[in-house]
Amino acid sequence: MPDFMILSKDVPDGPAIRARVRQDHLDWLKAPSDCTVLSAGPWLDDTNAMRGSLLIVKAPSREALDAWMANDPYARAGLPKNIDVRPFKLVIGRPEGL
Questions:
Q1: Which residue segment(s) compose the domain that 76 sits in?
Q2: Which residues contact 88 (CB under 8 A, 6 or more apart)?
Q3: CB of 10 within 8 A of CB of 79?
Q4: Rounded CA gap, 46 and 86, in Å?
Q5: Shortest CA distance to 79 belongs to which of 54, 98, 51, 59?
Q6: Can you give the CATH number for the domain in which 34 is found?
Q7: Is the pLDDT of residue 97 over 80?
Q8: DSSP states of 23-47 as a string?
Q9: What is the pLDDT of residues 8-48, one digit of tens each?
């Protein structure tokens, strides 16, 4: 299965959206799926405010990844202003068993 890097930038009212759906998003990331989250977290601006997200995900295919991402509570709430998905080769930090 290939790895993918997902980099998203939040809409201007992102902090309010994050606050409202953050727990649902975290639960979704941890839920069993064909896609496995290897690493995830927000990226920060100069004031340490969350302004977007970075995820490294192992997925069966790009199509499977797109279907999985469509169910993200952040995406359903309109948080991402844009999303960039790229193939990624994780060299250091791969969890055991993957």
A1: 3-88
A2: 3, 4, 5, 56
A3: yes
A4: 25
A5: 51
A6: 3.30.70.1060
A7: no
A8: HHHHHHHHS--SSEEEEEEEEE-TT
A9: 999 999 999 999 999 999 999 999 999 999 999 999 999 99
In a domain, 96, yes or no: no
Is 44 within the bounds of a domain? yes
How far is it, in rounded angstroms, from Cα 33 to Cα 37?
Answer: 9
Residue 78: left if φ>0, alpha if ψ -120 to 50, beta else—which one? left
Total number of domains constituting the chain: 1
Phi, psi for residue 35 in degrees, rounded to 5: -100, 135
pLDDT at 96 over 80: no
Residue with tokens 């960039």: 84
Residue type, 68: W
Residues 6+ apart with CB under 8 A from 37: 29, 30, 55, 56, 57
Classify residue 78 by its DSSP letter: T
